[in-house]
Amino acid sequence: MKMTILIRLHSRKVFLTALASVFFTGAHARTWTSPDGSKTFEAELEAYNPVTGLVTVKLPSGKSMAFTQDKLSEEDIAWLKENGSKVASGEGEVKELPEVLPDPDGEEADMSKPVQVYLLMGQSNMLGFGNPGPLQTAAKDGLYPYLVDDAGKWTVRKDVRNVRVMCSGNNPAKDYINDWMTIQGKIGPEIGIGHYLGYVTDAPVMILKSCIGNRSLGWDLLPPGSEPYEHGGETQPGYRGTPKDPVGNGEPVVGEWYAGCQYDGDVAAAKNVLENLDKYYPGAKEYEVAGFFWWQGDKDMRNPAHFERYEKNLVQLIKALRKDFEAPEAKFVTASLGQTKEGAGGGDGQILEAMKSVANSDDPEIEGDVAFVYTHPLSKGGSSSGHYSGNPETYMNVGEAMGKAMIGLMQDE
Question: Are 145 and 120 in contact (CB under 8 A)?
Answer without folding.
Answer: no
